[in-house]
Design goal:
Elements (H helix, E strand, L loop, with lengths): L14 H15 L5 H7 L4 H9 L6 H10 L4 H15 L3 H12 L9 E3 L2 H6 L3 H12 L7 H7 L3 H13 L4 E3 L3 E3 L4 E3 L7 H20 L16 H22 L27
Helix pairs in contact: 2-3, 4-5, 4-12, 5-6, 5-12, 8-10
Length: 281
Amino acid sequence: MKNTEHEQTAKNTSYRDIIRAEFSRRMGRNPAYSLRAFARDLSLLPNHLSEILSGKKGLSPHKAGSMGRSLGLSPRESDEFVTLVMAESARSRAVRTRARQQIDQGRALGVLRTLDLNTDQWKIVANPEHLALLEYLRIHPKTTDLSAAAIAHGETPARVEETARRLELVGLLKRRRNSGWRVPKEMVRSPDGVASSAIREFHHQILRQAKEALDAVPVDERDFSALVLALSPKNLREARSRIRAFLSLLHEELSEASATPGTRIYSIGVQAFPMTQGDPL
């Protein structure tokens, strides 16, 4: 799914190229559109924007998150924009190195393999069992009988068939005649920044399953980690971007290409929520 106004983004190698391309696009629509007006729309001072474009100054990762929205980028493109900024301007050398590796391996700017569903599509497949079956069939693409999938998921064959039908309905799964399934290789993502009861219910179910696994699954077959830290609103935006980049990288590097002995479908989730009231301004 692509934002057509930014379909050339994949060819850019610098976040400055993306900013320049958007400025050129707006000038093409309105010849009177100025750099000062562009800076205003990006919530920057004109001289600051000029210095960024000339390379005299860099853009901070936390500012990059909000700028992606101002540039009209899609959530996925905004994440990739932040990756480019992090590769150059992140404070941590390790973070800069990881971001550069993402870019070098072709995961940035349109090549990062994600499949973003819209709200209507997500309502149909909001139950986690849909993504679990999708992942199962991705590593068992030649499966023609879903009985084995039903056993693996602890469901009835009829239930698994209905789950597969709903995945087909939204275009995530295609049944090949007598030869298994065609499954997308991209990481499937829900709509970003949208208040949705379907998305909330999905996470409720994931958290319920996590709670059950905490007691039922042996410690060497699971991982539960938590971090408590103080975050300002601007650093929360950066944390969100880094979490998305981390999950995408995890999917790219560790997801099995095919079934191997002992392979199981795992859910890996990250939650960030306030534990206290905000300090007064």
